[in-house]
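User: Sequence recovery, please. Input:
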């Protein structure tokens, strides 16, 4: 019976929150902790309507994360989702063109190759434009 009572984590990752303490009774269905795979993280960016024609799902791009010393580090990323409808510019997002008040959400999967990227960090993205 003790062999059946072992709790084994099915995925590797970083524990974000603990919901139960060591030696506390764990019942079936109760969450013990929240875990995230930090090898691949997601970044939500917002683009203006004029940028939509230059991006598509599956497209490879580059994400830049600013470092504390003033520099930046680049990471490979892939566009995995583009919103089908426009929304108002979120309060925390500042676009270069102040006249744009409608934006489209885009979700990127970023390869966190060195583990530097943390949840909640800001990043910049440079979309590669195709040659026509």
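Assistant: Recovered sequence (132 residues):
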């Amino acid at each position: 019976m003790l062999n059946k009572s072992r709790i084994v984590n099915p995925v590797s990752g970083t524990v974000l929150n603990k919901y139960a303490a060591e030696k506390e009774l764990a019942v079936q269905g109760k969450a013990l902790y929240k875990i995230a795979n930090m090898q691949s993280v997601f970044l939500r960016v917002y683009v203006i309507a004029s940028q939509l024609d230059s991006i598509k799902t599956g497209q490879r791009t580059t994400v830049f994360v600013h470092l504390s010393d003033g520099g930046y580090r680049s990471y490979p990323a892939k566009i995995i989702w583009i919103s089908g409808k426009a929304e108002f510019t979120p309060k925390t997002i500042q676009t270069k063109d102040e006249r744009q008040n409608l934006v489209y959400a885009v979700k990127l999967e970023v390869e966190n190759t060195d583990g530097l990227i943390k949840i909640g960090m800001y990043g910049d993205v440079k979309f590669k434009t195709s040659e026509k």
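The beta strands are 14-18, 33-36, 40-48, 60-66, 72-82, 87-88, 102-111, 124-126.
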